[in-house]
Task: inverse folding
């Protein structure tokens, strides 16, 4: 299995080439964003097989803001999958935001997985928001006041959901993890280290290391680094401020018949 960010010639007939447009932190919120959204998504027609969005679709988590994205993709003709980000939860209306997106045909993943077909094979996408928690030397502990322990427990639930999702898609020849928060310190390089605990946690890395998916995408870290790894698994920070582009198109190639190892 290879993951490329540039065009490649088609391989043998028993291999697939799947093109994925990815972005995070689009932060739609103003009426003036509507035209920008329509142009950005419209430009993907005929270019990709799948669109993956890594959360922070809105500025403040208002359903009216979510409608900007919904209207832009309603007639797109390309599957769109997303997770929500922290901005999408800000107004405590995440259920309404989700409903607006789903009405437009967007698959919203919240501690869930989704299997779709392209190139005559199955792509398993495991999506969850992820959460804060920190990295080596700065972990938020499961100790102390109940509110602090709730933060730890919330991250634990995200880790467990990621593990369960990866088990569910184990037989898919192509497997992708879609997050908002980062599982890897490498993609946070460029951000102030004193805020890394609020940008993700390497606790999310454990199921990635165990199940070895083909690709991990996340956003949230606007000043981070585009590319990193968890073990041998490529991790990309597809936050729009990092990429400097509306989308990054990844190309995955591999056998359409080779299932993943069953755990």
Result:
């Amino acid at each position: 299995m290879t993951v490329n960010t540039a065009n490649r010639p088609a391989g043998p007939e028993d291999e697939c080439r799947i093109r994925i447009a990815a972005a995070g932190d689009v932060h739609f919120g103003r009426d003036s964003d509507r035209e920008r959204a329509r142009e950005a998504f419209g430009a993907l027609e005929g270019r990709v097989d799948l669109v993956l969005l890594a959360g922070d679709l809105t500025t403040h988590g208002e359903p009216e803001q979510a409608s900007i994205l919904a209207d832009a993709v309603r007639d797109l003709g390309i599957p769109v999958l997303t997770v929500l980000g922290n901005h999408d939860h800000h107004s405590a209306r995440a259920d309404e935001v989700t409903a607006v997106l789903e009405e437009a045909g967007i698959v919203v993943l919240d501690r869930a997985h989704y299997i779709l077909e392209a190139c005559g094979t199955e792509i398993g996408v495991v999506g969850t928001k992820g959460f804060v928690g920190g990295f080596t030397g700065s972990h938020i502990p499961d100790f102390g006041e109940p509110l602090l322990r709730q933060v730890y427990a919330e991250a634990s639930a995200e880790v467990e959901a990621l593990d369960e999702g990866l088990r569910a898609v184990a037989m898919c020849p192509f497997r992708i993890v879609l997050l908002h928060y980062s599982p890897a310190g490498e993609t946070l390089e460029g951000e102030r280290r004193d805020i890394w605990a609020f940008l993700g946690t390497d606790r999310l890395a454990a199921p990635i290391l165990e199940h070895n998916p083909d690709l991990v995408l996340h956003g949230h870290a606007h000043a981070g680094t585009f590319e990193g790894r968890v073990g041998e698994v490529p991790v990309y920070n597809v936050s729009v401020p990092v990429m400097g582009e509306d989308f990054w198109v990844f190309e995955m190639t591999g056998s359409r018949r080779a299932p993943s190892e069953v755990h």
Remarks:
- DSSP finds six helices and twelve strands in the chain.
- Helices lie at 33-42, 63-73, 94-103, 146-168, 205-211, 240-243.
- Residues 2-255 form a domain with the Purple Acid Phosphatase; chain A, domain 2 fold (CATH 3.60.21.10).
